[in-house]
Amino acid sequence: MKIQDAPIEPSLWHATAAAAPESFELEGRENTDVCVVGGGYTGLSSALHLAERGVNVVLLEAKEIGNGGSGRNAGHCTPTFHFYEIPTIRKMLGEPFASRLIQRQTDAANLVFDLIRRYDIDCEGVQTGYVQSAHAPALLPKMEQRCGYYQSVGKATRMLDRDEVTRLTGSPRYYGGWFHPEGGHLNPLGYSRGLARAAMSLGARVFTQSPVTAIAAEGGRWCVETAKGAVIADRVICGTGAYTDGFWPGLEGSFRRLGVAVMATQPIGDNLRKIIAPDNNTVVDSRGDAMIYKYNKEGRLVTSAFVEGRRGGDVAYTKALMARKLQWLLPDLPEVDWQYYWLGALDMQPKTIPRLFDLAPGIVASLGYSGRGVPTGTMMGTVLAEWALGARPEDLALPLEPLRSAPFYMNFAPRLFLAWYRFNDWRQARAGGATPPPF
């Protein structure tokens, strides 16, 4: 079974999310201004922001709302760039696109939690902040620089000393870090379902179990075909991420998939929660092969790991490895019982920032987020809505570019990077006199 086809039912989110709004398979022909392909954050946010403007919109989802990465991730909402620092983004994109994207991405968590409040979305959403902790002393100057980059664009980030990080994380393994107050976390499947409900309340028509098979020109418009029907639209938005599956030639080849295993512990008792992440922050450490954790509403610790070889594919091995790592990180944690375990996939590409592919006149695709899906997908919905409303390409937050295939090295680079990251994490820890985590 492909990672992107793994069932979502065993996930914690599927067990605890508010029910999805009622939807049906597309049968027959629908006429609309804009057809959105994909029922994840990108597609749902696009549909919602178009519906807010009174645009007639139809959304097609191949399976159920949030079936892809939008319902399978760990639920972090971190309004930062995943791989590159802000000055590098400026060099990569140039002006005015760099400043526009930086503003949108760094404000993206505020957008998420504004939508949650405005539409009363039941998704465990809390904007309690994000802690990135240094696993070795040598990382602190780089973190101070990063903290300053986000301060320079108006964010109230601040550095943390070792005592503060120990208190906020519950771990004695860190040497300091930085704090971003606009970060948060949520139930990602519940958030997906809430976006769908909000869009439908404003008139968007949402069809599930309706995979798109082809998109073809028809009478100066576009015909988006499914097994039992079709949508005739002036414009088409494609936001299918890692779950893209052959409906447009070459689109699936613009990225490479990287699997993620996500797991959740038993509920942690109140006394222990006063020690481990007592302020309910999202905690991420500075390792390339990072340890990440946060609570759900039941007090379960949720973490994740990239799939590589036995890690991810061998469930018993992965659970044992991640239990050792979490208990090493959090010595006060007496035991780890992984009661939920599920798989998802990321759409990785070299730039790691969103791409806007101009597929044909009136058809655009946005994908390749390479992580940070909750804020980035929601934010990109605003950009795609502006495109569909007729914004000039030079006025968008990202440049429109021709469809490009991911370079050959992306077939193996992400997994090679994981091996390098683990070695480098170990080297940095030992050089700083720290004990590396178990592998």
Automatic annotation (TrEMBL):
Pfam families: DAO (PF01266). Residues 33-387 form the FAD dependent oxidoreductase domain. The keyword RNA-binding does not apply. It comes from the Bacteria. InterPro entries: FAD-dep_OxRdtase, FAD/NAD-bd_sf. Signal peptide: none annotated. Keywords: Oxidoreductase. This is Glycine/D-amino acid oxidase-like deaminating enzyme. It comes from Labrys monachus.
